[in-house]
Amino acid sequence: MTTEYVNEKEMSKTDDNIELGDQYRENQVRVVESNVEDTNYDAVFGEMNEDGPKYRNVGWIGTVALMMKSMIGLGVLSIPSVLDTLGMIPGIICLLVIAAMTSWSNYVVGTFKLNHRDCYGIDDAGRILFGKIGREFFAVAYVLYQTFCAGSGMLSISISFNALSEHGACTAVFVAVAAIIAFSVSSIRTLGKISFLAWIGLVSILVAIFTLTVSVGVQDRPAAAPITAEPFESDFKLFNKPTFVNAISAISSLVFSYAGTPSFFPIIAEMKDPRRYTRSLIVCQTGVTITYLTIGIVVYYFCGSFVSSPALGSAGPLLKKVCYGIALPGLIMSTTLLTHLPAKYLFLRFLRGSKHLTSNSAVHWGTWIGCVAGCALFSYIISSAIPIFGGLVSLIGALLGTLMSMQPMACMWFYDSWAKGKANPTNKFRLLVGWNISIIVVGTFLMIAGTYGSIVGIADSFKAGDHTGVWSCADNSGTVKST
């Protein structure tokens, strides 16, 4: 028999708890005595009855799908270009270091959730660590980060539509269609029901990128390589000498590829048994890292400096269509998750502590649909209205993606472990102190340097005139329409 008590330190923060309603305060002091997780009651969602949505209904295998889908998207398709910038060996080393740091951050998310069951999102962690200011800061950062990434996902869907149709319609129309699809699928209320779709999306994106990997190995030359009489020989480099701006931008791309950490908070919150989170995490991080290494090394080895970005265009026009067609469900699911999660956060922020949160009332449905529609609309507007959207997403990713994937998790570890470890310091504790300090230092450096690199990139794109207009109809897939 296990007994779970809420941290007394949390109950001292009465000012923050009052605004969440009396029911939420009661949820904090509830004592659960059982050998299994009580999925009918939760410190975040409260009492869950049969008439309302079953929020905590995601198994550990479904959690793997949601985790991997939150990370594996078009980000993986930039990794061959990263290796081209840094060189094969430095690129692999940087990827493994980023993988180790983010794996630790993701692990701390799970332990922190088990210690603070009322924590739903990174804003709740910010409240616990830094009070009201921390909560509001991370709330704004989280919603901005997810909705900007959702806008990027809508653009990736429009790229797929353009590639498949050979620019059969105005790109602005394709982006609008992508926004409608994202809104429709994201309106499913629970991650438990979305997890099945996440599997479909995950399989589709993996099949697409492995199809690309095989095709570049058997083709005569990459699509971007000049056609000559001589056989093509890859010019891949084991080491390269990039400028500081190019190098830090490439490393920021690696961080962005692993920056699913903020999404892991709401994912674990809807698990049937959060104690199995670490099992899901190990499978996720191992699978993601193997996939990234395989795609990056193989595609860059065969294509060299002629690798396309996104890499799906490296295998020629026909296979480009095949790859984008296979990847389309995965791109849709990435955009779905990136729309659903900030909408769910806003929904909980509005109704937490209210009876409408777990009922099927008109207030419940109106609030939920309004949150999903608002997030989808905002993502659509920024994806269509900002001519330098790609550079702006890079800026948001470098500034907010790093900020929400490294430094706060190290602070969370210190919050839960410092007092106990300091009282009885061991070598393991000292090593973990040094490791978490290094994560804070490296994460801060990458955030500042990556932001600088993104700003320089935006300035350069303005100088070169390398951006489209507002609500542009221009083809964004690089497809040349056949005549």
UniProtKB/TrEMBL annotation:
The transmembrane residues are 58-79, 85-107, 137-159, 165-185, 197-218, 244-269, 281-302, 322-341, 362-382, 388-415, 435-459
- Establish whether keyword Transmembrane helix is in the entry: yes
Query: Which InterPro entries does the UniProt entry name for this protein?
Result: AA_transpt_TM
Origin: domain of life:
Eukaryota
Q: Can you cite an annotated GO cellular component?
A: membrane
Q: Which UniProt keywords apply?
A: Membrane, Transmembrane, Transmembrane helix
Provide an example Pfam family for this protein.
Answer: Aa_trans
Listed GO MF terms:
L-amino acid transmembrane transporter activity
Q: Where in the cell is it found?
A: Membrane
Its main localization is membrane
The UniProt record lists the keyword rRNA processing:
no
For the Amino acid transporter transmembrane domain, which residue ranges apply? Answer: 58-455
* Topology of this chain in the membrane: Multi-pass membrane protein
Q: Which family does it belong to?
A: Belongs to the amino acid/polyamine transporter 2 family.
Protein name, UniProt field: Amino acid transporter transmembrane domain-containing protein
Recall the taxonomic lineage recorded for the source organism: Eukaryota, Fungi, Dikarya, Basidiomycota, Agaricomycotina
